[in-house]
Amino acid sequence: MRILVVEDSVQLSESIARGLRKSGYAVDIALDGPSGLWHAKSNVYDVIVLDVMLPGLDGFAVLKELRQSGCEAHTLFLTARDAVDDRVRGLRAGADDYLVKPFAFDELLARIEALVRRHHNIKSPILTHEWVTLNTASKVTTVMGEVVEMPPRQFALLEYLMLRRGTVVSRSEIETHLYDAQAEPMSNVVDAAIYALRKRIDMPGKPSLIQTRRGMGYIIAQGDEEREE
User: Fold this and answer.
1) Hey, which CATH number is domain 126-220, 2.60.40.1220, 3.40.910.10, 3.40.190.10, 1.10.10.10?
2) What is the rounded (10 degree) CA torsion for 45, 46, 52, 58?
3) Tens digit of pLDDT for each residue in 175-195?
4) More confident: 206 or 15
5) Where in the chain does DSSP place strands (E)?
6) SS3 of 175, please?
7) Which fold has domain 2-119?
8) From CA 129, how far away is CA 134, in angstroms rounded?
9) Listing from the earlier edge strand, what are the strands of the sheet with 126-129?
10) Which residue of 17, 75, 107, 223 is most buried, as measured by CB atoms within 10 A?
């Protein structure tokens, strides 16, 4: 999942980014309103974390422009303001959530996770398909009831495919949602990641849960759809 953090405090923005990356998210940072607006219009984000008090354009102006331009990314306002009027203004401007500084990172992470689930119309943090279960809150994966350790980015890849279950996801879409804007993934990085993920979750003698659609991408099929090896 890819997150945009628009926050003018370098220390805070980098702290948030470090925490989110450790949790498997790809993160881009903008330090002012205009650059945040440019990033949000130029890339696809699952969630935008947007400070209210920003140089150049404040968060309200940024969000207004984004909504007018058709951007529907779920947005969480960060602010030192705790007045009810400010919270109401932010929500009515199109924000999906509001978090007052100072805050605990775990609360920010939980709110982002909730917005990601909302984006995919899923309420439970537990994703299950066949013999694989993901707990998106605790970041625990089980295969046939046994806990399987996996790196954060690998977990994020599986989570994204399971959230998009029944839909073919292209290589470019996977790169967009798993890598920061500054990162330049190698041409075969997605294929290698899928191969490694299959080794962790597939069962001997059974078709892979992750199907390849040649020339299109990858899919975790729903129901009893035919799987490819």
Assistant:
1) 1.10.10.10
2) 30
3) 888 776 655 555 678 888 899
4) 15
5) 2-6, 26-30, 47-51, 74-79, 97-100, 126-129, 132-135, 140-143, 146-148, 210-213, 217-220
6) helix
7) Rossmann fold (3.40.50)
8) 9
9) 126-129, 132-135, 140-143, 146-148
10) 75
